[in-house]
Design brief:
Layout: H1 9-17, H2 29-37, E1 54-58, E2 61-64, H3 65-86, H4 92-115, H5 122-135, H6 141-150, H7 155-173, H8 182-200, H9 214-244, E3 247-249
Antiparallel strand pairs: 1-2, 1-3
Helix pairs in contact: 1-3, 2-3, 3-4, 4-7, 5-6, 5-7, 8-9
Length: about 250
Amino acid sequence: MPKKLLLSIAAALAAFSLAACGADGDESASEQTEQSQQGEQPLPEPELDNIPDVVAVVNDREISGEVFAESYEAQFQQLAMQSQMTGEEPDQDELKSQALEMMINSELLTMEAEDQGFSSSEEDVDELLATMAEENGLESGEALMEEFKSQGLSEERVREDLHKEVLIQQVIEDLDVAEPTDDELQEMYDQQVEQLEAMNEQVEEDHAQEVPSFEEMEKQLTEQATAEKENEVLSGRIEELREQADIETHL
């Protein structure tokens, strides 16, 4: 979905690390971490020693090193587990840079929301938590919060991020995004059919996937095309905000 561009760290973590966690017996993030730690190779540790007290200043609003470290450590936990499977250790300098850019974008869009008069209540955050929990196969917002805590994020920090997410979603909903045309949907369909047919050529006939009709895929194609258009417009808006902003980074 378009809102999964997700510029707040807590919400990004939900989409990034909890997609496989569910009430049907799937492993939680904490269980995965414990199992990884019992493996042959130890997990790499996040490098937090040289993070300054203030990692960035965005239009006179500071992003503290403490807040950055908490978010970075939670992200790194997930990448470390992935790196154990691939055998490639994460590039921490690159990851820190990406995490900081995400936080700067979040601050800029939060400021944009505030300038436009949008607001976020505790009820809005509870509703968002419940929605995210359902999307990730968890029973409740409380269960999702426990997953966040297992990743090293405090409840206060998560709720603060989700307040920003509520504001950011209102900015996104206010963007002028064109609806996908029939020609665009047909082009996307043709591309996906071509990819599926190419995959089918690589497998035995009894393992080949049936090619769905356009009508069967139309809803999914529309959502995908809309998301792409929305992300493109949002990325452009972020670039405009960055050009207008006074941004200092100290990482």
